[in-house]
């Protein structure tokens, strides 16, 4: 089930954020993530967050700032079970367009977003880490209404 996050979720969300970043971004020193943990934890409470929960508890979340996906994070033990897809489909249902930044070295994430119809818009440098990243975007196709004239 996907639901809007609640205040009491922030500690668990922040833990998932840290664990996922440490495992997915092995090319960035772990200290970068641990040094930014408290700052991000504070920012998370200001973000638009949706969590995926099942009988085992919270398995992942997606964070939005307007049309920008700040990240999709799924517990490592729960990855490759369709949770990320459900989260991305959920926010696609809320927005007409979405954009995000993803590290080029995070090949798994790049392929995931491409599979979900996100296009690479440009390459850029993350000034905080010095890592190359892609800016990617998705836009809902506009359905043309067909009028039948008699």
Provide a concise account of the structure shown.
The chain has 150 residues and is α+β, with helices and mostly antiparallel strands. It has one domain (2-139): Aminopeptidase (3-Layer(aba) Sandwich), CATH 3.40.630.30.
Describe the secondary structure blueprint for this structure.
Elements: E1 2-4, H1 10-24, H2 30-44, E2 48-54, E3 57-65, E4 68-74, H3 83-94, E5 97-103, H4 107-115, E6 119-126, E7 131-139
Parallel strand pairs: 4-5
Antiparallel strand pairs: 1-2, 2-3, 3-4, 5-7, 6-7
Helix content: 25-40%
- Strand line-up of the largest beta sheet: 1-2-3-4-5-7-6
Q: Distance between the terminal alpha carbons, to the nearest Å?
A: 47 Å
Largest sheet: 7 strands, mixed
Annotation, overall tally of beta strands: 7
Anisotropy-based shape: globular
Along the chain, the helix and strand elements come as EHHEEEHEHEE
Backbone structural class: alpha+beta
- Give the class-level CATH name: Alpha Beta
The unreliable regions are 143-150
Radius of gyration from the alpha-carbon trace, in angstroms: 17 Å
CATH architecture: 3-Layer(aba) Sandwich
Q: Please name the fourth-level CATH homologous superfamily.
A: Gcn5-related N-acetyltransferase (GNAT)
